Every structure is written in structure tokens, then in C-alpha cells.
Amino acid sequence: MSAYLAAPITGIQKTIELGLFILMIGGLLMVISATGAIDNGIARAMVRMKGKEHLMIPVLMMCFATGGTIYGMAEETIPFYMLLIPVVIAAGYDSVTGVAIVLVGSGVGVLGSTINPFATVIASDASGIAFTQGMGLRLTILALSFIAGCYYVMRYAKQVRENPENSIVADMKESNEKHFLAKSGKQENIEFTGKHQLILAIFALTFAVMVWGVAAGGWWMTEMSMLFLASSIAIAAIGGLSEEVFVDKFLEGCKDLLGVVLVLGIARGIGLVMDEGLISGTILNWGEKALAETSSVIFVNLMYLIHTVLSVFIPSTSGLAVFSMPIISPLADFAGVGRDLAVTAYQSASGLVNLVTPTSGVVIAALAIGRISIVKWFKFMAPLLLTLAIIAMGALSIATM
Question: Which band of pLDDT confidence, cut at 50, 70 and 90, is reported for residue 14?
């Protein structure tokens, strides 16, 4: 019994460097949020595109997709639903369009994660490879998925604007206009200063330096943690945050991600129990025999489908990565499939499911704000989900061959 109780503690000990890296990211994101750079930047873009609402959709979806692929933007999107939905309804669209711009935009970014620490980095670490491996394939999936998602949302928005009866929430048109437009405020006085632009430039540069450090500088968790801490200090200084505010915001960001660190430790602990109980070895032995005659193309698509199912029960991208990758990656070796493909299959499947799953708090919060039922949302998303799945599985199959 004591060995089982010790497993999560040992798991946390074994993920301490990764956990500290995640906490540094949380601190950086909260410090940036405190400066108002991201919020004001997107709000200013919305104001500037007044009268050109059709252009608002691809531009904003690109912003959210960038956040998704870089740092797994999810919970951070929730304030934007309240900000954006009144704008799109006033422009002649519906609440579904507003929710889709944010949720599909950021979700497609996560699906095509390139350097997302909570998906790509953690899964690569659990697989024993650098997260820069497979970057080209992930960029391809990201680009194709974004094009498909953007086209789908723009097409739906155009149909709704031309004929409101095409809206899947057409029965709530008057109610939604009364609800959202009565609460919408003026945004013309939002300031997006040169200071905000500099902060966002440093934010982007931080991730660029991280990629260079891992790919060419021999960096790993310690060096990346130092980089994010240094960027947090620089951004706080530029943003005019006092030492007290900086410390409070940084610790608040760490606190928000402490649960992620604990989940990683517990998931790693489960892996230790499976290793000690010879469960992992049994699964690998069974998998090796089952895959002996399986083609690599079939295997990589099976990995995708397995993670699609697992993502329903484990919506946390980081938790799923630590739980599944230590087993899936060795199985990929038996099938002659690169471990980077196993990571890509995992993250693209997880990103797909988290666009609609009712086990995701972000999805439920977004639909609650937009006054959309999960059934109507799934009906709206079904054709796009199929398209995104075909893109991912097709790209994985071609890369494997």
C-alpha cells in the first residue's frame, strides 16, 4: 500500500524540472495579462475593422490560432467571448459565429501545436525526444487546419448574414440581440500603445529564442525556465508594474498552473505503478506481437483514433501526454514509426476532441456565454471535425510513408 501512496510523490519528484518550467510559463502569461497588451491588441483590431466585419473573422482567428499553437491558449480565451459576441451580432452574424471565431481559432492552433509547452513539449519529453522533431509536419497540419476552419466559419457567417434563418440558433435571434447588445459597451477608446506592441514583440521573441535554444543551443527545461523568468521581469519593467504587483501576478500565474503540475506528477506516478507491476511491459509485449504484421500507416492512424477516444475521458492535454506517451512511443518503435509522429498523432487527436467535448471546461464555458446548447454546437461542428480528422490522418499517413 505504501508503494502506491508513494507513487504520485515520486512522480512529482521525477517531473520537477518540467513542473517548474510550466510554473514559469504561468507566471509569464499572468504578467503579460496584467499589462493589458493581449486584450487591448485584439480589442483594437476589432475596432479598426469596423465596417469590414468579414475581414474580422480570419484576422481574429489567426490571432487565436497563434496563441493556441504557441502556448495552448484555452482558458485565456474566455473573456474574449463576452467581448466579441456582441460585436459580431451587431454586424449581422450570430452568437455561434462569435464562439466559433474564438474556440475554433484557438482550438485549431492547439490541434496544430508547434511549440505548445502543454502538449508538444510535454509529450516529446515523455517520449524522450526534442520537441523540435516533427516541426515541419505540425506546421503543415496547422496551416491546412486553419484554412479549413477559417473557410468553414466564414462560409457559415456569410450564410447567416444573408439569411438569419440559416443560423442554428435562429429561434433565439431576438433574445440574443436583446441579451448581448444591451450589455455591449463602446470600445473606441481602447489604447494599444507602443509599449503594448513592444511587450507582444518580446513575448513572441521569447518563444523564438526557446526554439533556437532547444534546436541549436543544447537547452532543456532549466534553460527554458530561466528564459521565461527573464522575459517576465523584462515585460513587467516595460509594462510599468511595481515589484509588488509583479510578484503577486507572477505567483498568481504559477498558482493557476499548479494543478497541471500535480496532474503531471500523478500521471507519472501511474506510470511508475504500471512499470513496477509489470503492466507496461505486458502491454508492450502484447503490442509488439500485435503490430508485427501491421503497416506503419495503419499504426499511425490507430494511434490517432486511440487518442481521440482517450481525449474524451482525459481532456487535459498535459495529463494525457504523460499518461499515454510512455507506452505509445515504444510501440511506435516496434511499428517502425518515428516517435515524433506519435507525438503529432496524440496532439492532433486531443486538439480535435477538445473542440467539442463536454468534459472540457473551456468548451462548456464558451457555449454557456454564447447561449448555445452542446447538441447544436456539435451539429455545427460535425462537418468541420470530419474535415480536420481527414487532414490530420492524411498528413500522418503521408509522413509515415
Answer: low
Distance from C-alpha of 110 to C-alpha of 355, rounded to nearest angstrom: 10
- Cell matching residue 60: 481574429
Q: Which DSSP symbol is given to 119? A: I
Q: Which three cell numbers stand for residue 158?
A: 456569410
Q: Are 178 and 371 in contact (CB under 8 A)?
A: no
Task: Note the pLDDT tens digit of each residue in 277-320.
Answer: 656 556 545 655 555 567 889 889 988 988 888 888 777 788 78
Residue in this structure with the C-alpha cell 517576465, named with its chain if needed = 232
| Distance set, CA 359 to CA 38, 149, 362, 368, 374 (Å) | 27, 22, 9, 14, 11
Kind and range of the H or E run holding 54: helix 53-71
Q: d(Cα 138, Cα 140) in Å, to the nearest integer?
A: 5
Q: Is 309 exposed, middle or buried (0-12, 13-18, 19+ CB in 10 A)?
A: exposed
The C-alpha cell that represents 305 in the structure block: 483514433
Chain centroid to Cα 374, Å, comes to 20
Buried b (16+ CB within 10 A) or exposed e, 354-364: bbbbeebebbe
